[in-house]
Design brief:
Blueprint lengths: L1 H6 L9 H6 L3 H44 L3 H9 L5 H23 L6 H24 L2 H31 L6 H57 L3
Helix pairs in contact: 3-7, 3-8, 5-6, 5-8, 6-8, 7-8
Length: 238
């Protein structure tokens, strides 16, 4: 029982979490440092992506409502200018700009020189390019969450294996080994695995959240592309 109390932080005053970390071997400390840095970066990404995706969803809903309710394309354009966080709004601006270029060039060249298929192709390419750029923005930094979620436990396990190996080497050099001599080395090794899991679990959860929200926005962009092209085809390029 006395040996067990010595393992509990603060129970016997001999061993604590901080003392185990400070007394760990250099390799285990490096592993803990790497995991701590990865965890800090992940939490920054989690906070930023939550805010970014939330704004993207809110502004996309605002733009979509304005787009379908308003019949004035100039009003829609002005509203879209203030919704830069919305990927759908950015796509509309790209399509609108390309449509304005085509209208100006066709007005100067004359109506008989129009090539409707080429015009629609130009607008679709502008929309696809904007969609690709916005999708890249939505997916930025998210792969680091996946890396932390998959590699974190293994990095921690490496620290654990190294710590246990070092503990057994130390035990082999002593005449007598009991729970008091074995416990510190094993405990410091297990801390590395615990830190790896603490870093990995939130990263995996955040990665799944970001992927789900991104898929929804990408689906909305795909739908908007088709709707926008249909509207252009019916009302503008005649």
């Amino acid at each position: 029982m006395e040996g067990f109390l010595a393992l509990v932080p603060g129970a016997a005053g001999d061993i604590s979490i901080w003392s185990l970390i400070s007394d760990a071997t250099l390799v285990v400390k490096l592993v803990m440092g790497v995991l701590l840095l990865m965890s800090i970066i992940c939490w920054y990404i989690v906070g930023y992506k939550y805010w970014y995706l939330r704004r993207a969803n809110i502004e996309s809903a605002q733009f979509t409502e304005s787009f379908w309710r308003s019949r004035d394309i100039e009003h829609i354009y002005q509203h879209a200018q203030s919704l830069r966080r919305s990927p759908i709004s950015v796509m509309f601006l790209a399509g609108y700009t390309e449509l304005a270029k085509l209208s100006n060039s066709e007005g100067a060249a004359g109506a008989h020189s129009r090539d409707f298929d080429a015009d629609m192709g130009s607008i679709e390419r502008a929309l696809r390019k904007a969609q690709m750029v916005e999708t890249t923005k939505l997916e930025s930094m998210v792969p680091f969450l996946a890396t932390t979620g998959s590699a974190g436990p293994f990095i921690g396990l490496f620290g654990t294996v190294w710590g246990i190996m070092h503990a057994f080497l130390s035990i082999s050099q002593k005449q007598k080994a009991d729970i008091r001599t074995v416990a510190p080395g094993i405990a410091e090794a297990l801390i590395a695995t615990a830190i790896g899991l603490v870093a990995a679990i939130p990263a995996v959860m955040a990665y799944n959240y970001c992927q789900r929200k991104t898929r929804v926005l990408v689906s909305q962009m795909e739908t908007f592309t088709q709707d926008y092209l249909n509207i252009i085809r019916r009302h503008f390029l005649k």
